[in-house]
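User: I've been trying to design a sequence by hand for this structure and keep getting stuck. Would you show me what you'd pick, starting by listing the structure so we're on the same page?

Assistant: Good idea, let's start from the same input. This is the structure you sent:
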């Protein structure tokens, strides 16, 4: 086990009616709010009216910015930071899914950053140059990314067709309100893509070279099973409060402070790197991209780094209940079980079915490895990324 620091500083209000805590929490951190949301969903579910009423009743001033896209755009970030500067706003309230919360975090940085945020921070990761950010709070309406409780933001630059993340402790939301009822209206596509995303966060932390971090891995196995059990329940009944609540908490837990990496060597999330290229080029839903790439990435690793086959076998046995004594066979069976789960929750069969053109695979591979090899168990260069994409196609 490596040394680690563990700090989950976001205050969580979980459950029905927790929005009543919104004004008190905002007042702890700011006086004039950027009220940020996506397209129409928060209006449809009455959350917009509920939040506005609370702000007005408590004399909290705000400026609205609507229209954050899924795969949030750099142009929206720039618009948000302009509004903050021009109106002297000192707090950002994000109401929505991961895209809106990510956009809020990106605005929070952009307001004070003096250099070129895209090049310095997203492309070249000069995180130490971030000195000051605006505080952010969130009301989550879609369970998936864990952004409600973590230090990350992922932004798409529509001009350059690039999508990159940045992580900085200053960006952890001050508070997040998690009421599972707000997620009842998320359609099947985004609900199931969200479950795929949560599972991927868990797998990317589990399937790594460090196999002696038992607390992280045993807890992780438990949360993975929660996702496998509850995703089909939501597909069957979107209003299943218990299933929605379990998935919502799983989303936060899966990527809060990278807690399932505790003791592991920090590094890339290669499946996410491969997936982000599909979102950049095709604006594809994040969780879908991960389901498309994961099984091929696993098979590639088993072939190139067979020393990790026992870990894949442990994943198969402990998460999917595979009963097979031979490690290699167990590991392969685990990947088949994962594919069956993806099928059950309606993920596309392969990249071809998802609309990816074969002649774009080479470009995707070179973009995914633009800044060098990616990988955890084994490094993946451009040709190997291409091999994975071809297998997934
Ligand atoms: O725009 P609105 O009207 O809000 O509609 C959204 C959007 O169309 C809709 N939606 C949200 N809540 C709803 C709802 N529809 C009905 N009822 C509700 N209650 O769902 C659609 C998708 O929303 P979005 O926020 O894009 O989804 P998600 O939460 O999956 O976020 C995806 C983004 O997060 C990034 C992804 O790359 C992607 O850009 N990620 C962020 C991470 C992080 N910050 O730690 C980690 C992840 O790995 C991921 O990369
Ligand atoms: Zn993700």
């Amino acid at each position: 086990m490596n040394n680690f620091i563990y700090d989950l500083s976001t205050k969580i209000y979980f459950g029905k009616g927790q929005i009543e805590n919104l004004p008190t929490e905002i007042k702890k951190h700011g006086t004039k709010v950027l009220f940020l949301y996506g397209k129409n969903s928060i209006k449809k579910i009455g959350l917009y009216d509920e939040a506005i009423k609370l702000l007005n009743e408590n004399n909290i001033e705000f400026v609205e910015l609507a229209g954050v896209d899924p795969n949030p755009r750099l142009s929206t970030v720039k618009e948000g930071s302009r509004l903050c500067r021009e109106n002297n706003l000192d707090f950002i309230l994000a109401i929505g899914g991961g895209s809106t919360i990510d956009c809020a975090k990106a605005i929070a940085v952009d307001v004070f950053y003096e250099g070129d945020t895209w090049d310095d921070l997203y492309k070249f990761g000069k995180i130490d140059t971030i000195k000051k950010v605006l505080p952010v709070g969130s009301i989550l309406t879609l369970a998936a990314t864990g952004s409600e409780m973590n230090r990350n933001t992922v932004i798409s630059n529509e001009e350059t067709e690039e999508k990159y993340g940045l992580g900085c402790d200053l960006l952890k939301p001050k508070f997040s309100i998690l009421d599972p009822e707000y997620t009842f209206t998320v359609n099947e596509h985004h609900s199931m893509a969200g479950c795929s995303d949560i599972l991927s966060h868990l797998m990317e932390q589990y399937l790594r070279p460090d196999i002696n971090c038992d607390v992280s891995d045993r807890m992780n196995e438990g949360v993975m099973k929660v996702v496998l059990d509850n995703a089909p329940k939501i597909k069957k009944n979107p209003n299943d409060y218990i299933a929605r609540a379990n998935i919502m908490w799983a989303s936060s837990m899966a990527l809060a402070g990278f807690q399932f990496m505790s003791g592991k060597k920090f590094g890339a999330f290669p499946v996410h790197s491969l997936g982000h290229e599909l979102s950049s080029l095709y604006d594809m839903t994040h969780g879908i991209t991960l389901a498309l790439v994961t099984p091929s990435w696993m098979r590639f690793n088993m072939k190139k780094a067979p020393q990790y086959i026992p870990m894949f076998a442990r994943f198969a046995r402990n998460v999917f209940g595979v009963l097979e004594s031979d490690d290699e066979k167990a590991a392969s069976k685990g990947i088949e079980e994962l594919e069956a789960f993806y099928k059950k929750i309606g993920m596309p069969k392969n990249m071809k079915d998802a609309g990816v053109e074969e002649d774009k695979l080479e470009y995707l591979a070179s973009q995914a490895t633009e800044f060098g090899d990616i990988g955890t168990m084994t490094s993946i260069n451009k040709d190997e990324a291409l091999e994975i994409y071809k297998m997934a196609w």
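That's my pick for every position. To get oriented when you compare it with your attempt: Strands lie at 11-14, 32-37, 61-65, 91-96, 136-140, 152-157, 162-167, 175-178. The CA atoms of residues 178 and 285 lie 22 Å apart.
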